[in-house]
Amino acid sequence: MTDLHHHGDAELGPGLVDLAVNVRADAPPPWLRAVLHESIDAVAAYPDPGPARTAVAAAHGRPVDEVLLTAGAAEAFVLIARAVRPRLAAVVHPSFTEPEAALRAAGHPVVRVGLRAEDGWRLDPAAVPEEADLVVLGNPTNPTSVLHPAADVAALARPGRVLVVDEAFADTVPGEPESLAARRDVPGLLVVRSLTKTWGLAGLRVGYALADAALVARLAAAQPHWPVSTPALATLTACTTPAARAEAEAAARDLDRWRAALVAGLPPSVVLEGRPRSSFVLLRVPDGARVRALLRDRGWAVRRGDTFPGLGPDHLRVAVRPPEVSAAFTAALADVLPPAPLPEEVP
Fold first, then answer.
1. Is residue 254 part of a domain?
2. Number of neighbours of residue 150 by Cβ within 10 angstroms
3. Contacts of residue 72, Cβ cutoff 8 Å, sequence gap at least 6
4. Which domain holds residue 153?
5. Is 69 in contact with 53 (CB distance < 8 Å)?
6. In this predicted model, what pLDDT tens digit does every residue of 154-171 receive, in sequence order?
């Protein structure tokens, strides 16, 4: 049985270079750290989500009652499992495993819709069962880094169906061209977003969901009081300003260049899966479990792929880092790969 609760942080250890976790930075930028420090003065009072909710709504051009603030994207998936009672949930894989884990923990029937390597791991809307009244997928998808066309994702919507799109990595793509976050015309659409990846905030637990007001109200009714802390609320407000969004856009453009450098340096025997567009790439290497262990011995932590449904032990997810880090990594990878087989002799 696939371990749906295995995540990249489990790969880390003392002295290892972290290519296993998809957070862009080791720490928030200085101006955001200042926001966090200043917010401590207000923690004696209960959190007031109003300003942050208003800021998120304005950033996506939506009414305030269509915004739900959450303690990270993971909480949103638990709330969905609590508040939505699907007859059949369909989860598109390979993808982030927490949505399926939350649905199964709540006792909901789940069917997996597998994307295929030979199709470039691209979404085929026709593969999703018509009878599914809850559909979950990521865009860009973790771990394949594939960005699905917004039209294909929106084509999954149906009357009576909740369509959950995990956009935790949407802001790693310049211009967010396929995001549905501002769409109010797609029935049953629920978009989940996170500040973790771009701003280096995994430990703060901060995110939000966007949906029609009635669905937001259903999710909120399943949420405890004061779920998002005062520092997290301050961060949400700060990270949705025009200046912060411009900084995130610049970071996404940097990631494009850094990813190209990583891909260009891959050894010939390594297969790059799909067309990566986010802050990580999915690789297939020969004898993957051994290669991952040898990389670890040399100081490199990468994310194993076999805990994602649809992937196997030869798959490795590798975070995009600055070119000098990627160059050192690809050199180490070349050193630990099995030797290429000799060509057969022609009689």
1. yes
2. 17
3. 194, 196, 205, 206, 207
4. 30-243
5. yes
6. 999 999 999 999 999 999
Region at 26 (left for phi over 0; alpha for psi -120 to 50; beta for the rest): alpha
- Structural domain contains residue 344: no
Is it the case that residue 343 has pLDDT exceeding 80? no
Do 245 and 219 touch, CB atoms closer than 8 A?
no
DSSP tag of 281: E
- Integer Rg of the chain from CA: 20
Residues 318 and 203 in one domain: no
- Long-range contacts formed by 125-129: CB under 8 A, 24+ apart: 125/152, 125/155, 125/156, 128/90, 128/92, 128/156, 129/88, 129/90
Number of residues assigned to the chain: 347
Domain boundary among 199, 222, 243: 243
Query: What would you measure as the largest C-alpha separation in the chain, in angstroms?
Result: 83
Domain end position, chosen among 209, 243, 277: 243
How far is 200 from 266, CA to CA, in rounded Å? 26
37 and 183 assigned to the same domain = yes
Residue in the block written with tokens 């997996």? 112
Helix (H) or strand (E) holding 26: none
Residues 135 and 253 in one domain: no
pLDDT single digits (tens) 195-241: 888 888 889 999 999 999 999 999 999 999 999 999 999 999 999 99
